[in-house]
Amino acid sequence: MEQVIVTLTATPPYDFELTAAAATSFRGHYGAEIFQDGIFRRLLDLGDNRLCLASAFSLGTVESPRLQVELTGAALDEDIVVEARRQVSWILGIDQDLAPFYGMALQEPTLATLVRGMKGLHVPHTASVYEALILAILGQQVNSHVARLLCNLLIQTFGPSAQVAGVTYHAFPRPEALVAAGVDGLRFIKFSARKAQYIVDIAGRVTSGELDLEGLHTRSDEDVIHTLTGIRGVGLWTAQWLLIHALGRTDGFPHNDLALQRTLGILLKGGTPLRPEEALECSRRWSPFRSYVTTYLFAAIRSGRLTLLSPADELGA
Fold first, then answer.
1. pLDDT recorded at residue 276
2. What angle do CA 213, 302, 92 make, to 5 degrees?
3. Residue 143: its pLDDT value, please?
4. Superfamily name and number for 2-96
5. Taking Cα atoms as reference points, which of 199, 234, 227 lies closest to residue 211?
6. Whole-number mean pLDDT of the chain?
7. Mean pLDDT of 166-185
8. CATH for 129-245?
9. Residue 183 has pLDDT above 70, yes or no
10. Could you tell me if residue 248 is left (phi over 0), alpha (psi between -120 and 50 degrees) or otherwise beta?
11. Dihedral pair phi/psi, residue 62, rounded to 5°
């Protein structure tokens, strides 16, 4: 194993610990992401069967943020290091400029206290659109505990792995691995028949080249939603989550999300959950920064800063 150390400079304000915790849904370990003892780890899949463990930690402050990333893998040539650096920067959202969002949010009574309490939280991203789509589908219509269980089972069962310092890490499953597993393989690890069918179908279309999910980065929000909702098993809820977590768009808003409706009800309606159309209408005043609003609201829920009436029922990607 070789090791290369790189340094990343984030756009301030940047709270590394808060952002890394959000990447794991404040669970310490969610899917392929691990955040423990101040170190964020992810086994990166760099293509052509190349794997690299990235271990990132903070060297700076919220106002002067600097990260050190240790890359561990076999044959870490320049191309691998460049791609690993790009992936870590994207996953941890280090290049986001929060100033325009803060300019709006700090003038909004509903958001100001929330934003001040989580200053420097950037929006974490998934490594790929494909990964985000699979994660969103497995999270449909189940609570957060079940979604996490399914996610971890999927990755540990079908994801490529590498051992570093005696610890085994898993990357997200490649589409061809899910095709090979088939519906029966996913059913074996407790996926419903319908979700298994959706996931295997998507993986097959990605593998064949019929479905170019990464190409969505160059499309408008409207085109992205149109394309995604044309895929079997994908509705508006999933498409909006992908705008936020997979594509880095600033104005995604999954107004059909039950936890989001309940959270807004607590903040705006004395605890009565908003209806989907009410949540959407309410959100218009936060455009074009609704992805940030959504991220901060869910971070507040998952970190315990904001308590839902029935935490066990939390739904969301």
1. 97
2. 45
3. 87
4. DNA-3-methyladenine glycosylase AlkA, N-terminal domain (3.30.310.20)
5. 227
6. 95
7. 98
8. 1.10.340.30
9. yes
10. left
11. -60, -40
